[in-house]
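quick one before i forget lol
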Amino acid sequence: MSTTVHVLAAPLLTRPQFVPVPKPPQQQPQRPIERRRPSPTQGRALEVLGHAIEYLVDSRLDETWDTPADAEAVHILMACSRAVFTECEVILSWQQRIQRAALRRLIL
């Protein structure tokens, strides 16, 4: 693994100063977008949880987060929202349905 460095010449220094060149961030592989259809109850729960998260974050914008409990409350609400979302029915596109049907036929 090689590291690229640039040499900066400074008039007052006797030795050159080495500065590492930052590497560009690597892009994460794109996951396919997963669409879900919530029931009316799940939709309302997601809406309420989203408003609660937004309220907590907005109420602390001008202040410091005094205790770890403030951040933990937001993380708990986000985990609850994620749990409700994963319980929602997954909607498959027609391409995904055809692909799964073809794979099932190949496997059987």
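fyi The longest strand covers residues 5-8.
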